[in-house]
Design goal:
The chain is of the alpha/beta class. The protein contains 15 helices and 20 strands. Helices cover 36% and strands 21% of the residues. Bound molecules: ligand BES, manganese (II) ion and zinc ion.
Length: 498
């Protein structure tokens, strides 16, 4: 549940420690509720909004103490809306984040007047949803091993007297709360250190979530994988004493004949590189190599909570990649569940090996659509940086739908080509495939490799290597670590499909 409450009425008579007004740039004079507040405060709002440093830029905050004045608040807070005509979900998300970041520690409760945004209908729901996401995601801290010292707001009310505000705003707030909780779930699992986030531990966490959410759950271990001929996935786990898992979550739509979407997420719990060992610097970050899987688990949690009218199957191949005595070696040959043979030329290109068998497994659900998410290549990070995932698909419509969904929820993705020439590079000399392409275009050759294991319907691959964790630079990932990138994108995409 979110701390954000929706109320109809006058913000000025609410009980809270801070009154927040949202004001745009290029403001010449106060109007509406801001003007009313100004009257009650003897011109204080005007002074702060028009005569000081505050210019109304998105995320900017101005504070003034008003205890003992004409209103029963301790603080007057202005938050910048930017250009009034360009207020969208991302503006509201950033402002929710700014309010959480600036007011927590100063006050416990705040009321935000949104009358002047004239919120109603779907727009109200969408903007409030994004606002709640910003508020909640900014409060997120990974506090399993140390109590978080960062304070959080306890209560935040969005208030407007406008007709038609209440119902859509409540709907949007509920949706934002569900999405933020799903992102937090993905972050929690992604942030676990390697020794607390083994494949079986991720499976156990997914099971607990599934039970609470009413999702179907099962997990396959080594024996079942052997029966299914998953020699590729199994080979990656050989260098570790910890058993790999193939985690399966199932959300069933209420209506019959609903379409089926499979979400496949790389859940590599720690990527040392294996025998092709990675360099030491920053190797701790390779705990985040399970983020694709964690995001799929989060997305399934949201699909259940939102009761999406599509069947959604989450499939998470999970393994460690370690250099134990039995580990894959360069030159080893394995056979995937679809009987294709693969020469392993670099044991650090393991993500594609575990995804191969998971993609083959997805076929049994007869999906209309398969989307995989994986922290697959450093090359993708080099190509796109930390602001977009790499999208690879042969399906132009699907590409467009994913790019658009990403723009709407500000988890953006950018398409890379997936042409036959790239696929050629992945063919083996004495095997069907090899797991290593040429020197260039590494994100794309990895995608081209995966394509060999998709046999049904439409498919898209998202390389999330650059966006899955950060150093806290994003305002709504103050706590650093796993970002949960992909949960919002998948939910937005799935809602549009429905
Ligand atoms: N998990 C890594 C990709 C990665 C690297 C993600 C750095 C985020 C930051 C993946 O398993 C990997 O090691 N890929 C190799 C592939 C190469 C050996 C073809 C890479 O990108 O270097
Ligand atoms: Mn690797
Ligand atoms: Zn990896």
């Amino acid at each position: 549940m979110s701390i954000v409450k929706i109320k109809k009425g006058s913000a000025l008579t609410e009980k809270a420690e801070a009154l927040v007004l949202l004001l745009p740039t290029e403001l010449k004079s106060l109007k509406g509720l801001a003007k009313e507040a100004d009257g009650r405060l003897g011109g204080l709002v005007k002074g702060l909004a028009l005569e000081g440093e505050f210019k109304g830029a998105v995320e900017s905050v101005a504070l003034q103490r008003i205890a003992g004045s004409g209103l029963a608040f301790d603080w007057l807070v202005l938050v910048g809306l930017g250009d009034e005509k360009k207020v969208d979900q991302q503006v509201m998300r950033r402002n929710g984040a700014a309010i959480q970041a600036r007011l927590a520690g100063l006050v416990r409760s705040a009321v935000v007047a949104v009358d002047d945004l004239a919120l109603d209908g779907e727009r109200a729901a969408d903007l409030v949803q994004a606002f709640v996401e910003g508020v909640e995601l900014t409060a997120y801290r990974f506090d399993r091993f140390k109590k978080a010292e960062a304070p959080k707001l306890r209560g935040l009310a969005l208030v407007s007297a406008a007709e038609g505000f209440l119902r859509p705003a409540r709907k949007g707030a509920a949706r934002g709360g569900v999405i933020a909780a799903a992102v937090a779930q993905a972050r929690d699992l992604g942030n676990l250190p390697g020794n607390h986030g083994r494949p079986k531990m991720i499976a156990a966490a997914a099971r607990a979530m599934a039970r609470k959410s009413g999702l179907g759950f099962k997990t396959l271990g080594r024996a079942e994988m052997q029966k299914l001929g998953m020699g590729s996935l199994l080979s990656v786990s050989l260098g570790s004493p910890h058993e790999p898992q193939l985690i399966v979550l199932e959300h069933k739509a209420k209506k019959k004949n609903a379409r089926t979407v499979c979400l496949v997420g790389k859940g590599l719990t720690f990527d040392s590189g294996g025998i092709s060992l990675k360099p030491g610097a920053d190797m701790d970050k390779m705990r985040y190599d399970r983020c694709g899987g964690c995001v799929v688990i989060g997305a399934l949690q949201a699909a259940a909570a939102l009761q999406l009218p599509i069947n959604v199957i989450g499939i998470v191949p999970s393994s460690e990649n370690m250099p134990g005595g039995d580990a894959n070696k360069p030159g080893d040959v394995v056979e995937a569940a679809n009987k294709k043979t693969i020469e392993i030329l670099n044991t650090d290109a393991e993500g594609r090996l575990i995804l191969a068998d998971a993609l083959v497994y997805s076929k049994r659900f007869k999906p209309d659509l398969v989307i995989d998410l994986a922290t697959l290549t450093g090359a993708c990070m080099i190509a796109l940086g930390q602001h977009a995932s790499g999208l690879m698909t042969r399906d132009d419509d699907l590409a467009r739908e994913l790019v658009r969904a990403g723009e709407r929820c500000h988890e953006r993705t950018w398409r890379l080509p997936l042409w036959d020439e790239y696929a050629e590079e992945m063919k083996g000399a004495t095997t069907d495939l090899k797991n290593l392409g040429g020197r260039y275009g590494g994100a794309i050759t990895a995608g081209a490799f995966l394509e060999n294991f998709v046999e049904t319907g439409r498919w898209a691959h998202l390389d999330i290597a650059g966006v899955s964790w950060d150093d806290g630079a994003r305002i709504y990932n103050k706590g650093k670590g796993a970002t949960g990138y992909g949960v919002r994108l998948l939910v937005e995409f799935l809602r549009a499909q429905a």
